[in-house]
Amino acid sequence: MPLRGFWSRRAIPARLPPVSHGVGRAGVPVDRLPDDMLLAGLATGDEEIAVAFVRRFQRSVFATALAVVGDRQLAEDVAQQTFERAWRHAQVFDSRRGSVRTWLTTIAHNLAVDTVRTVRPVPVTPDDLAAVLDAVATGPEHHVINAESTARLRRAIAALPPDQARALVLAAIHGLTAREIAEFEHIPLGTAKTRIRAGMSKLRATLHAE
Amino acid sequence: MADVTCEEFRELASELALGILPGRERAAALAHRDRCSTCREHLDALTTISDDLRTLVPDTEPPVGFETRLLDHLHARTRVQRRRRRLLATITAAALVIAAGLGGWSLGTLTQHQPPTAAPVSPSPRLLTATFTADHRDAGQAFAYTGTPPWIYMAVDTEHDTTTVSCQLQTTDGHLVTIGQFQLSNGYGYWGTPINLDPTTLATARLIATNGTIIATATFTT
Question: Is B47 helix (H, G, I), strand (E, B) or coil?
């Protein structure tokens, strides 16, 4: 009976993991492993890989959680749950559907939304929104690998009408529903839904056209 | 909510992709998505945008001590998992011995495809690499990790239409070990598994089709 691998796919991502030509037995330091290999290694329970994985992603996971819950202690709890979930479910990660970073931030976002709904209904303040909106539209590129696609997305957001950009940030990053956005912005529910729909539609059209 | 039409789905798709659609509407929209490939593609495109939006949030330094607390937690969970695996392995081995009625024969059979014992691993884990070649062209990479547990990972891109391949490792002393099988799709595939041997003794990794043909070989340099 064949052994079952800890990590197998029916197809590989669009490109193979980066190749370290000429490295041979000298080896590649663990902290320089590609993201998807680091995640695969995490599933084996290797402690050194766990350290490298946490160090690489802890800031983005924590930031994602904090944007939703608005409380550093609560965000830490969410971030811890996120890494534990990644450790338990590394096998289901599918690199064809996105990067490890996107996968992790989506887990963190969903956990944070679930958490915040039981704590306080609208954790975001107008100041929070303004700061995040500015950072989203103009922030520096932290992740060099995705810098080009990230820059295109930032440009597309910056080109949106401000009310649509605000609605998208409130929904995508702070996790507010259309009803909560309507209350936050003091607008009718239908207007909030229209802003979300129009904003997403324009982003898609802009990104598709480039 | 009743079944939604494609037009109604388009009205809901953005909120669904953003993960903010309330329960009843969400259930109806998801039911429609499962039936309609066009709407599914539309939703996938929006979901990609939604996921990418979240990655634009600037990184934030977690509280002091977060990394240590988190790693302690993960390591504790890992140790519990390993204890459970060892217990399960012990129970399984004992059951096999009892079932066969011949303890030595059973254990010998159980381990015949593996080296007698796990070799000691390097105290400083490294990642060894080797390039797969097939029909004299590069066909992917194999990576062997020397930590604990040691493991191997491979990504291959071949022109073979084989769907199932076995992976066979050969050590520098000529020992052959088949470590498992995995699937290719249109010649592509990637796979990894823990291995019960010292990665520093690896000579080659071979991918073998079900008809016995070697479709790719990777040689670890010495």
Answer: helix
Higher pLDDT, A119 or A56: A56
Q: What is the ipTM of this complex?
A: 0.76
Give the SS3 label for residue B178. strand
Q: Could you tell me if residue A204 is inside a domain?
A: yes
CA distance B34 to B43: 11
Distance from CA of B118 to the nearest CA of A (A): 16
One domain for residues A72 and A129: no
Q: A176: which chain B residues are within 8 Å (Cβ-Cβ)?
A: 20
Question: Quick check: B15 and A193 CB within 8 A?
Answer: yes
Is the pLDDT at A144 greater than 50? The verdict is no
Are the Cβ atoms of B155 and A66 closer than 8 angstroms? no
H or E, element range at B157: strand B151-157
The CATH number given to whatever domain includes residue A60 is 1.10.1740.10
Give the A:B interface size as CB pairs under 8 Å.
253
Q: Which domain holds residue A113?
A: 29-120
* Number of compact structural domains in chain A: 2
Q: Is the dihedral of CA B64, B70, B71, B72 positive or negative?
A: positive
Residue A20 near residue B128 (C-beta atoms within 8 A): no
Q: Determine, yes or no, domain membership for A16.
A: no
Q: Give the list of residues 6+ apart from residue B92 with CB closer than 8 angstroms, or none.
A: none
Q: Which residue has the higher pLDDT, A24 or B30?
A: B30
Residue of A1, A4, A10 to mutate, testing the B interface (most B Cβ within 10 Å of its Cβ): A10
Do A37 and A116 reside in the same domain of the chain? Answer: yes
A37 with A104, same domain: the answer is: yes
Compute the nearest-CA separation of B194 from chain A (Å): 7
User: Is residue A106 included in any domain, yes or no?
Assistant: yes
Q: In the listed set A120, A143, A174, which residue is the last one of a domain according to the structure? A: A120
**pLDDT category, B55, cuts 50, 70, 90?**
confident
The CATH number that applies at residue A150 is 1.10.10.10
Q: Closest-CA residue in chain A for B123? A: A48
